[in-house]
Fold this protein.
Amino acid sequence: MEHPIILFDGQCHFCDQSVQFIIKHDAKGFFKFASQQGEIGQELLNAYEVPEEIDSIILLNNDKYYIKSSAALRICFHLTGGWKLFSVFLIIPSPVRDFFYNIIAQNRYRWFGKKESCQLPTKEIRKRFLDMK
C-alpha cells in the first residue's frame, strides 16, 4: 500500500479534530483518509475483515489493520515534531494502552459531541480523502 489509510468516525467531533491534527502534522501527505460511515470506508472495513463491533480509529497498512492505541501510536510515528516519540509506548502491552484509549472512545460523543457534516477541506487536502475527489 503506497499510502496507509486512516478510517475515522465521521460523526464524531473528536475524531474530526484528530484527523485535522494528523493533516497538520503530516506535511508530506503520507496518510489517506476515509470515513467509516462512507461507501469507501465500508468497502475497506469489509475487505480487511475488520469486526463490526470495533469502535476505534483504524489504520490500514500493508494488508493489516491496527486499532485503538496501536493505530494511534503508529500514526504518531509518521507525524512531524515530537509526536514520533509517542510511538515508544508501543512497548507497553496493548491491553494496558487500550484501557486508557477505551475511556476516551466510550465517552467521545458525550464529551465532544456528534455532528452531521464535516468542514470542507481545501482542494489539496480533499485529494487525501478517498471519498472526496
